[in-house]
């Protein structure tokens, strides 16, 4: 077993992409410092910002909320109750329990009251479940942040999430995606700033941090995502990384450095305000209000 680079004690993790082995204590310390470094590197936010952390009840977002507060940032949580049966009930419980433990404020949005549950929306939509769910979540992150005076929304997306999404979009040569995905999306025409402070941590690293801090998170996956292709792309990337350590991180970081600037569109999007809810949209009525209309008709 390798030894911790700092103190020489038995290491609990070796990160080949950083050529770094660390013991329990020094891994936690490193993880927090590295989060701060990523926040500063991408100018995500400062101590003056009011941050809304989107919390799913999973390891990444709970760990993110924990780290941000520990680093001294002003961060509250936002949980969207998606109405996906027992899975949603259990994840809500994890969020509430954690909020209580850290004495944090958790805002809860119940989709059933606001709109309709994800299963009901999927029923009336021609989109895939994950696409409907992503749309509705992003809409609410933005709306709640603006209504309640938050300057930035932070999500728990990790390196595995970002690199696997990148891989699938490269395989399809989705140029739009390549110019749009970045760990910071600046505030623009009714959209608040969005950031991903964990974008350089692997899933294994965020899971270990959550575990070492006794964070009780929901382990089961959303029942809709069981055979999602993202799981497959994550597996493929991990196999490549096993054979050639460091490839996953390099693939993502080189995209940020070399590819994103080439595809990024400088001109601003032509955004309008939705005639129904006032949120920014490309058309006259935003996709969420159109879904709402469909639910009304079918119900
Ligand atoms: P996912 O799309 O499930 O991989 O989640 C990506 C990120 O979105 C998570 O790390 C959270 O920050 C956020 N998120 C996912 N589900 C929810 C939810 N139900 N409520 C609030 N935030 C969520
Ligand atoms: Zn050590
Ligand atoms: Zn609308």
Q: What can you tell me about this protein's structure?
A:
- The protein is of the alpha/beta class.
- It has helices at 24-41, 59-70, 85-102, 111-114, 118-124, 129-147, 159-171, 175-178, 203-212, 229-243, 247-263, 287-298; strands at 13-15, 20-22, 50-54, 74-81, 106-110, 152-154, 184-185, 193-195, 272-273, 280-281.
- 50% of the residues lie in helices and 12% in strands.
- The strands form 3 sheets. The chain has a 6-stranded mixed sheet with strand order 5-4-3-6-8-7, sandwiched between helices.
- A hairpin with a 7-residue loop joins strand 7 (184-185) and strand 8.
- The longest helix is centred in the middle third of the chain and has 19 residues, at 129-147.
- The protein starts with 12 loop residues before the first strand and ends with a helix.
- The model has no long low-confidence stretch (mean pLDDT 95).
- The protein binds adenosine monophosphate and zinc ion (2 copies).
Features:
globular, binds adenosine monophosphate, 299 residues, 50% helix, binds zinc ion, single chain
Précis, in short:
With 299 residues, this protein is α/β, with parallel strands linked by helices. Helix content is 50%, strand content 12%.
List the helices and strands and how they pair.
Layout: E1 13-15, E2 20-22, H1 24-41, E3 50-54, H2 59-70, E4 74-81, H3 85-102, E5 106-110, H4 111-114, H5 118-124, H6 129-147, E6 152-154, H7 159-171, H8 175-178, E7 184-185, E8 193-195, H9 203-212, H10 229-243, H11 247-263, E9 272-273, E10 280-281, H12 287-298
Parallel strand pairs: 3-4, 3-6, 4-5, 6-8
Antiparallel strand pairs: 1-2, 7-8, 9-10
The protein binds adenosine monophosphate and zinc ion (ZN) (2 copies).
Residues 54-56, 60-61, 78-80, 82, 137, 155-157, 161 line the site of adenosine monophosphate (AMP).
């Amino acid at each position: 077993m390798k030894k911790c680079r700092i103190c020489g004690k038995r290491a609990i993790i070796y990160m080949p992409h950083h050529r770094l082995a660390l013991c329990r204590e020094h891994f936690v310390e490193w993880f927090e410092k590295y989060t701060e470094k990523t926040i500063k590197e991408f100018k995500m936010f400062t101590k003056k910002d009011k941050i809304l952390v989107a919390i799913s009840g999973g390891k990444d977002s709970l760990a993110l909320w924990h780290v941000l507060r520990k680093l001294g940032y002003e961060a509250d949580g936002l949980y969207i109750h998606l109405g996906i049966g027992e899975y949603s009930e259990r994840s809500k419980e994890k969020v509430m329990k954690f909020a209580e433990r850290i004495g944090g404020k958790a805002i809860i949005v119940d989709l059933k009251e606001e709109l309709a549950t994800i299963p009901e929306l999927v029923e009336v939509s021609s989109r895939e479940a994950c696409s409907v769910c992503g749309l509705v979540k992003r809409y609410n992150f933005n709306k709640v942040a603006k209504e309640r005076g938050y300057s930035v929304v932070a999500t728990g997306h990790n390196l595995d999430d970002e690199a696997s999404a990148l891989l699938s979009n490269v395989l399809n040569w989705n140029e739009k995606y390549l110019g749009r995905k970045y760990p910071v999306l600046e505030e623009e025409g009714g959209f608040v700033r969005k950031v991903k402070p964990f974008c350089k941590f692997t899933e294994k690293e965020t899971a270990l941090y959550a575990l070492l801090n006794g964070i009780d998170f929901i382990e089961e996956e959303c029942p809709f995502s069981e055979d999602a292709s993202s799981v497959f792309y994550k597996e493929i990337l991990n196999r490549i990384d096993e054979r050639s350590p460091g490839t996953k991180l390099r693939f993502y970081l080189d995209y940020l450095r070399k590819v994103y600037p080439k595809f990024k569109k400088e001109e601003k999007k032509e955004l309008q305000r939705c005639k129904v809810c006032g949120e920014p949209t490309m058309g006259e009525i935003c996709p969420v209000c159109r879904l709402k209309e469909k639910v009304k008709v079918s119900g």
